[in-house]
Specification:
Elements: H1 8-21, H2 26-33, H3 37-50, H4 71-83, H5 89-99, H6 109-118, E1 147-152, E2 156-157, E3 163-164, E4 166-171, E5 177-182, H7 188-202, E6 207-210, H8 226-233, E7 237-240, H9 250-263, H10 271-288, E8 324-327, E9 333-336, E10 339-342, E11 351-356, E12 361-366, E13 369-375, E14 380-383
Parallel strand pairs: 1-6, 6-7
Antiparallel strand pairs: 1-4, 2-3, 4-5, 8-11, 9-10, 11-12, 12-13, 13-14
Helix pairs in contact: 1-2, 4-5, 5-6
Length: 410
């Protein structure tokens, strides 16, 4: 014989009947039914007011919703959106408030946004693309000029109210500070001039480590900007830390803290005097200040310039025979087999090589820097995983050669 199931409403009815009979006290009945006296009196009151219907469960939804709007307001919002289709909730709300100041309550921009989204009248913005960081572990510099680190320290105001934004470059192994120069802009031209000066004085590193911001990186294939593409042409391998992980460039960040303590707390009167403070700091930091991490030696006692000299001119890029070569248009795309493919806006007017792997896939290269893999069936490019130098993404060491080959050995 199957067990009989009792509905909750039936149990409540049995409780009410037992109370009305008066054979037991309210306390005894509540204990036998496993409910509190407060709940017992609640069901009695509902039964007395509504009868058996009052013992049914009620909706937990609030009777008054704080974001509810009237039909009049709803129609006004939809009419405004129809008239001004490119306006967002904030502008629509302000426009309605100016024309209907007599309304008892004006809906918030978030409420207008919910209404418009429910009617399919707003378009969800896609998240901004981010450049792909280098796959960990990053290259470990074991000698001078294997890894240089660069970044903008972060702008601050001098006492006269002008903005100071220093570009810094250091050698990871020796901690030698190669550059600390205020720049009025973070443009490609102004930043390149500082690197040309550093390369001319100290030679070329193998790896340049940066964060994922401009002008060092972008969201195009390979994350190459005009600046980092120029590094590739010089045989320097760009290496990017993961977003939100400055500890991956910890030695350079630690130098920034010392730089701030010595030169910007408090800042100088103006940018010229601030630059003099930077120059004095460079001399002290490199020549006088002992560093615990390098056995209390000075960076100048360890650092030596790179034997790889800055070339007087860049040779033309030449890819191996059998690779298709395409010039990147000014808007960042190429034409290949009758189709237009976006590559990278930072490579405009540069030449990329297309290496056929099999019938379905090809690899895209800029010099010896892999950009991605082209799927011929979907005609989509899967960005390449940026690898550290030690993992096989060898830099182009033949910058003074007539040929710059993909996959060339170190």
């Amino acid at each position: 014989m199957a067990w009989q199931e009792t509905r909750v409403v039936d149990s409540r009815m049995m409780f009410v009947v037992a109370v009305l009979k008066g054979d037991c006290s309210m306390l005894e009945l509540c204990e036998s039914f496993g409910i509190s006296r407060k709940s017992g009196y609640k069901w009695l009151e509902r039964y007395a007011a509504e009868g058996p219907v009052g013992l049914e469960d009620r909706s937990r939804a609030p009777l008054n919703h704080p974001n509810a709007i009237s039909d009049e307001v709803r129609e006004a919002i939809l009419a405004a959106k129809s008239r001004f289709c490119h306006w967002g909730p904030l502008k629509i709300g302000h426009w309605l408030w100016k024309r209907h100041p007599d309304w008892a309550g004006h809906p918030a921009a978030s409420t207008i946004g919910v209404l418009l989204k429910s009617r399919g009248l707003v378009r969800t913005r896609s998240r901004p693309k981010r450049p792909s960081p280098t796959q960990p572990p990053l290259t470990q510099g074991n000698s001078p000029n294997e890894v240089w680190c660069t970044d903008f320290k972060g702008h601050f105001q001098t006492k006269d109210g002008h903005r100071c934004n220093p570009l810094t470059v250091s050698d990871q192994f020796s901690r030698y500070l190669l550059c600390c120069q205020h720049l009025d802009t973070m443009s490609y031209e102004s930043v390149r001039r500082q690197f040309e000066r550093a390369f001319g004085e100290f030679g070329l590193p193998l790896v340049m480590r940066t964060d994922n911001g401009q002008p060092f990186s972008c969201y195009g294939l390979g994350g190459l900007t005009k600046l980092s593409a120029w590094w590739v042409r010089l045989g320097i391998h760009p290496e990017r830390i993961e977003p939100g992980k400055p500890q991956q460039n910890g030695r350079h960040e630690r130098m920034h803290r010392t730089l701030k303590e010595h030169t910007a707390c408090p800042p100088a009167k103006g940018r010229r005097s601030q630059q003099r403070s930077f120059d004095e700091f460079i001399d002290e930091f490199n020549q006088e200040r002992p560093h615990e991490a390098i056995g209390m030696r000075t960076p100048a006692s360890i650092y030596v310039p790179s034997p790889r000299e800055m070339p007087s001119r860049l040779e033309d890029i030449a890819y191996p025979d059998g690779m298709a070569v395409r010039k990147v248009a000014h808007h960042g795309d190429i034409r290949y087999r009758g189709r237009r493919l976006f590559v990278n806006g930072g490579l405009c007017h540069e030449y990329v090589g297309i290496e056929r792997v099999d019938d379905d896939t090809s690899r895209l290269w800029y010099c010896n820097y892999e950009l991605g893999t082209l799927d011929h069936r979907k005609w989509q490019i899967e960005p390449a995983k940026c690898c550290p130098l030690s993992a096989g993404a060898s830099p182009c060491t033949a910058h003074n050669s007539k040929k710059v080959l993909p996959m060339s050995p170190v």
